[in-house]
From TrEMBL:
Its EC number is 6.1.1.20. This is phenylalanine--tRNA ligase. GO terms for biological process: rRNA base methylation; translation. GO terms for cellular component: mitochondrial matrix. One of its GO terms (molecular function) is phenylalanine-tRNA ligase activity. Residues 523-616 form the FDX-ACB domain. PANTHER family: FERREDOXIN-FOLD ANTICODON-BINDING DOMAIN-CONTAINING PROTEIN 1, PHENYLALANYL-TRNA SYNTHETASE. InterPro entries: aa-tRNA-synth_II/BPL/LPL, BMT5-like, Fdx_antiC-bd, Fdx_antiC-bd_sf, SAM-dependent_MTases_sf.
Length: 616
């Protein structure tokens, strides 16, 4: 592209550099590991070097790819693109030495690359160790290029065939420019970009209004990057906002629509009937002065576990706890409050939207925070079935239209009776809703097993209730939709965490709120496995939700799986030992083995302190 500075490393005969040098406005800096004397007598190298210099390119010799900043003054260290074709230590160097070469190269590249720059690395077929290699080598026998690049803060954003035959005048010379050239058949070009750094979040406080008074509370650490993100605000281009808009517009054709005109509080007071205590993010507010965020971060406020309620209570000496609040786990209580307001109109479809927060086990479609859209309508007794069907038909029509526009085919969305499902078959969203109150119907998608969601993915629920406040002849219909799951299904987003990424490349794919199939900018991210084993305190059961929540927190949501792989009970003492396997993987950021090792150590420390387990 015009105006770009391109750095080429490890040139053998400079034929690749010569082929690129013709692009108007592109400044090429071509380098070689050997001296000019060693290179000039090789094939057409001297001719290519003259050609490069005649066209204004820089040609440098004896350049070590692991020390790039040493060869350029500070004002010339920013390159838009770095090419390294077929790097190799030479002779019969094994995979370990070549990985070390790549690691030093990537760290060095990070010092001379622009923020939006790219690093292109061409490797012979099989060397990279990614699924793009065909056939694919075993991981231990590959160069593990994605994991190596992650150590320097790079993610693989594209991979495509290296077509040597399409590069005019290019001739591969082999490592250290020996006569025997590399086999470029099936070779791949790997394109790396910078990753956003892994988050290191400080404690965050949030201010809300309760009972006409402003109070602040400390946001649970696992949620600090997800609170007040504004995805549903008017100027948002986020796909969950677009889907909310489209659904509202579609339903306005069939119903008289009323959006709530008051702010929904982030906090809910008291306990929700039927909901497991451990699934709630509890916030304890003191009747005395709320401690500052500095006091919280300095450890002046201690949080410990209340075994009776399985909740978190403030243990600061002299702090009088008067009321218990939680981050809202559902908009259902707010929908019920709408009914009791004087402005509630039977026959009108009232709409509420906002993020909700739930502690849950780690699973592919288990979301600790998502955007819920709730519809409330009161109809005459006996007509609720037709109201439900009309509501579902309009929801189906809108989602079908969106999905067909984006992907070109129809998404199957069905209304299924709640009695047709066992509890074990429900995803986390449906299972939690089932705790709140009786559900009549689930709104489910049916997909094949190769799809990005489960075979039966519940994205919405329907329930009815009788409220004397409206009329003894009226029945209230509630419908709830998970906008995040809908966005994933419609836009082909396989990982819920991508919806919350701070990387601007995500929202760039949805300009002006347009929906389209999402293309991941982080391909084949490396995964790492660590085991942890411990003794459970005598007479206690492990709180698995708390166990998973700690894993979410210490890893910054990079733990994607926790599996119990072994359990053992001592016959003599009855002590129980558990062994879990944690799999770490990031969907949008570079994640190195060293960072994961640090997370694992912190996880061990936290479960010992918070859950009282005895590490083995």
């Amino acid at each position: 592209e015009p105006g770009r500075r391109v750095l080429l490393l490890g040139e053998g005969n400079f034929s690749f550099a010569a082929s690129l040098c013709g692009a108007a406005g592109t400044h090429v800096v071509a380098t070689c590991y050997e001296s000019e004397e060693e290179v000039s007598g090789r094939g057409r190298a001297a001719e290519n070097i003259r050609r490069l210099r005649d066209r204004g390119a820089e040609v440098l010799f004896s350049v070590d790819c692991a020390k790039l900043k040493d060869y350029f003054s500070p004002e010339k260290r920013e390159f838009d693109c770095i090419y390294f074709n077929f790097p190799h230590c030479g002779r019969k160097a094994g995979v370990v030495k070549n990985r070390e070469l790549l690691a030093r190269f990537f760290h060095s590249s990070a010092e001379v690359l622009t923020q939006e720059g790219e690093v292109h690395v061409a490797l012979c077929n099989g060397q990279g160790g990614t699924p793009a290699d065909q056939p694919r080598r075993e991981w231990h026998n590959s160069w593990q290029i994605v994991a190596v690049a992650a150590g320097a803060g790079f993610i693989l954003s594209d991979v495509h065939p290296f077509k040597a035959e399409t590069i005019h005048g290019y001739k591969c010379t082999g490592y250290r420019s020996q006569d025997k050239s590399f086999c470029v058949e099936g070779a791949l070009n790997h394109v790396f970009t910078r990753s956003a750094p892994l988050p290191r979040f400080k404690p965050v406080s949030c201010e809300v209004e309760l009972e006409s008074q402003k109070v602040s509370f400390q946001v649970p650490q696992v949620l600090v990057d997800k609170i007040n993100r504004g995805f549903l605000e008017l100027n948002s281009n986020h796909p969950v906002r677009t889907i909310e808009e489209k659904l509202t517009a579609e339903l306005s054709h069939a119903f008289s629509l009323q959006n709530t005109d008051y702010c929904l509080s982030l906090l809910h007071q008291g306990h929700l009937s039927g909901v497991c205590h451990s699934n709630i993010f509890w916030i304890i507010l003191s009747s005395e002065e709320t401690p500052s965020i500095e006091e919280m971060s300095n450890g002046h406020v201690d949080f410990c576990r209340d075994g009776d309620k399985n909740s978190w209570v403030k243990a600061q000496e002299g702090c009088c706890v008067s009321k218990q609040y939680c981050l809202r786990p559902s908009l259902l209580p707010y929908a019920q409050a709408v009914i009791q307001r004087g402005a509630f109109l039977p026959g009108t479809l009232h709409v509420l939207s906002g993020p909700v927060f739930r502690k849950c086990l780690i699973a592919p479609y288990s979301l600790p925070v998502f955007h819920e859209m709730v519809f409330v309508c009161a109809v005459n007794r006996g007509t609720e079935s037709s109201c439900i069907q009309m509501l579902v038909n309009n929801i189906q029509s809108s989602i079908h239209s969106l999905h067909r526009t984006v992907s070109g085919f129809k998404l199957n969305l069905n209304l299924q009776e709640a009695t047709s499902f066992e509890t074990s078959e429900l995803n986390e969203f449906a299972a939690f809703e089932h705790q709140l109150s009786k559900i009549q119907y689930f709104i489910c998608t049916e997909t094949d097993t190769s799809s990005s969601c489960e075979k039966h993915c519940c994205v919405g629920i329907i329930r009815t209730a009788h409220y004397e406040l409206v009329s003894s002849e009226m029945v209230v219909v509630f419908a709830s939709l998970n906008l995040d799951l809908l966005a994933m299904l419609i836009c082909g987003i396989s990982d819920w965490r991508m919806l919350w990424t701070p990387d601007s490349r995500f929202l760039r794919q949805f300009p002006r709120g347009e929906l389209q199939l999402f293309k991941s900018f982080s391909l084949y991210p490396p995964s790492y496995v660590h085991d942890v084993s411990f003794w459970v305190p005598d007479g206690e059961q492990l709180d698995e939700v708390a166990f998973h929540t700690i894993a979410r927190q210490v890893s910054g949501e990079t733990v994607i799986s926790i599996q119990l792989i072994d359990s053992f009970q001592q016959p003599e003492t009855g002590r129980k030992s558990l062994c879990y396997r944690l799999t770490f993987q990031s969907c949008d950021r570079a994640l190195s083995c060293q960072e994961v090792a640090e997370m694992q150590l912190l996880f061990r420390k936290e479960i010992n302190q918070c859950l009282g387990v005895i590490l083995r």
